[in-house]
Amino acid sequence: MSESNATPLAKAILAAYKQDQEDELLEPHVLTSRQGAPIGRISRGDGVIFYDIRGEREIELTQALTEKAFPHFKTTELNLAFTTMVQYKKDLDVRVAFPPLEGLANTLGEVLSNAGKKVLKITEAEKALHLAYFLNGKREEPYPGEKHIVVPTRKDVATFDQAPQMSATEVTEATCKALGDSSIDVVIVNLCNVDVVGHFANADAVLRAVQTVDEALGRIVRCAHKNGVRTVITADHGTVERWLYPEGSVDTGHTRSPVPFIVDEEGFTLRDGGELADVAPSILDLLGISQPAEMTGQSLIEGQAPHAERLLLLILDGWGHNDEVYGNMIGKAQTPNFDELWTGRPHTLLAAAGEAVGLSDKSVGNSEAGHLHIGSGRRVLSDRVRIDKTIADGSFAKNEAFLWAIEKARRKGAALHLLGIVSFYSSHGSVEHLRALLRLCKQEKVAPVYIHAMLGRRGERAQAGARYIGMIESECRELGVGQVAGVIGRYWSLDREHNWDRIERTYRWLVEGRGTSVATL
Fold first, then answer.
1. Which structural domain range is residue 464 located in?
2. Whole-number pLDDT of residue 6
3. What local confidence, expressed as pLDDT, does residue 361 receive?
4. How many domains does the chain have?
5. Residue 4: what pLDDT?
6. At which of 380, 401, 420 does a domain end?
7. CATH code where residue 34 lies
8. Can you spell out the DSSP letters for 134-177?
9. Do 92 and 199 have their domain in common?
10. Are the CB atoms for 325 and 333 separated by under 8 Å?
C-alpha cells in the first residue's frame, strides 16, 4: 500500500512501521475528530460483538469490559450488551453466538481417569490451557486423578525471542522428577519454545529455541529410560520448518506440514497415513486400555503393541516435518537427540492441518486444534468451519446473540462495536467474519458501528496490517456502514498470562481513547 492513497489510519500504521513497530506490537492508535476528540469509544449501554474465535486469549479483555467488580485495575461499569462469537469461558457475563457443541465423551483424559490412571501434565504457563482445556476436549475441570504443574513463563523480557530458552529448563526438571515418581502412570509434557519463538522474525532466536527443545528432549528421554517409562513423541502442528516464503521473506505463521510421531521402543513398526486423531488410540494401545467407540482414530502401531506400564507423551509444540532444505529452521539447527530417535526408533508422520484437524481444506494447523485432536482421538469440526457454514447458508444473519446486541444498542440509541482480529490467517478469527457482521449491520440498519481492529503478523506477510485496515475501510464505505475507530497490536489485547498492564492499555484505548491520535479526513 502506498501512502498516497492510504486512509489516515493506514498511513499511521505505515508510519509506525518506519519506527520499527510491527503489527503484533503496534501501539494503540485512535481515530479522532479534527478537534482531537476520540471517535467511537465504548460507552455505557453500548453493544459489543467480540468476533474472535478460539477464546483463551480473549478472556481477560472480556472480563475487564464486563465484570462489575473487576479487581485488576480501575474500570467503569459499562453495562454493555456483550456478545462473543464462541464461548471463551463459562462464567462470563455475555451472550454466545456459537455455543460449544455437546461435550466430547471418552477423550484420552477421561479414559485414563476411568481406568484409574494417575496423570500429571507439565508445561509452562504459555501453554497451560492447551494441556488442560483443549487436550481434555474443551473441558475446563481436570478429570479425577489428573494433576497439573504449570511453570511460570518468564516476564522479564518484552518478547520471547529475547529469551528463546523460555522456561524449558524448569519444565525439564519437573518432568524428570515426575518420571522418578512411580505413583504417576502417565506424564504429558509440552515444550513450547519452537512455536512461541517461531512467531518472531529472529533467525538466531528460532535456532536457539529449536536447539533448546532438542536438549530438553534428550534429557527427558534419558530420565524416562532410567525410570522404565515408555516415551511417545509428537507435535501439534508445524511452524519453523517452513519459515520462509518463496521469495525469501519470513513467514512467522503456522504451516500445513505433517508432524513426527515416534515411539521410543524397538521391535515393531508404525503405519503411514496417520493423523493427530490417531495419537490417543495409540497411547491406549500401548497402555493396554480398550479404545472407546467414540474414538474413531486408529492406533498407529502395526501388530501387537509392546505393553507399557507407565508412559510419557512429549509434545514438541510447533515441530513440523519438512524434507526440503529451503527455509527449514529445524533442519538447519543442531538436533542430535531428535535425529537419533527419528533414525533409530519406529516413526511416522501425522497430518496436522486442514480437514485432518477439523479445519477447512487448505488451513494451516494450530495449537488449539492440534491439542484437541491429540486428546480427543477423533476429528472435531472447528468453530471456524461451523461459522463459515452459517455464513454460506444465511443463518449467520439470523443468529439470536448478534441480533440481541444490535437491538439492545439500537433501543438505547447507543453504538455497536465490532472488536477482534483483522486477518485472513489468524487462528483467533477471520476478516470474513467481520465482513459478515458488517453486512448484518447494514441489513439491520444499525448505526453507528465502530470497528476496533487487532493486528498480528502470525502467518501474514510483512506490513499486512495497513493493507487490511485500508481494505476494511474501503468495504465500510461501499456498504455505507461501519468505521474503523482504532487499531492495536494483538500483543496488548490478546493475553493469557495475566499481564494486566497490557489489558489495561487495551481497555484505556477502547474506553478512554488513549493512544496515538489519528485525525480523520
1. 3-99+385-519
2. 66
3. 87
4. 2
5. 47
6. 380
7. 3.40.1450
8. ITTTS-SSPPTTEEEEEEPPP-SSSSGGGSTTTTHHHHHHHHHH
9. no
10. no
382, amino acid identity: S
What number of CA atoms fall less than 13 Å from residue 386's CA on the CB side? Answer: 14
Instruction: Note whether 86 and 140 are same-domain residues.
Output: no
pLDDT of amino acid 5: 52
Do 202 and 58 belong to one domain?
no
Same domain assignment for residues 132 and 239: yes
Question: What integer pLDDT is reported at residue 460 of this predicted model?
Answer: 63
Residue 303 confidence class, pLDDT cut points 50, 70, 90: confident
Are 360 and 246 contacting, i.e. CB atoms less than 8 angstroms apart? no
Share of the chain above pLDDT 90, in %: 81
Residue pair 283/108 in contact (Cβ under 8 Å)? The answer is yes
Final residue in a domain of this structure, among 313, 345, 380:
380
Provide the terminal-to-terminal Cα distance of the chain, rounded to the nearest Å.
18
Confidence grade of residue 458 (pLDDT, cut at 50, 70, 90): low
What pLDDT does residue 462 have?
67
Domain co-membership, 307 together with 402: no
**121 and 236 share a domain?**
yes
The CATH number that applies at residue 202 is 3.40.720.10
* CB-count burial class (<10 Å; 0-12, 13-18, 19+) for 115: middle
The pLDDT score that the predictor gives to residue 352 is 98
Give CA torsion, residues 248, 252, 255, 258, to 10 deg: 90
**pLDDT mean across residues, the chain:** 94
> Model confidence at 461, in pLDDT bands (50, 70, 90)?
low
Q: Are residues 315 and 205 in the same domain?
A: yes
Of 202, 240, 227, nearest to 24 (Cα)? 202
Q: Which residue, chain included where needed, has cell 502395526?
A: 302
CB of 380 within 8 A of CB of 247? no
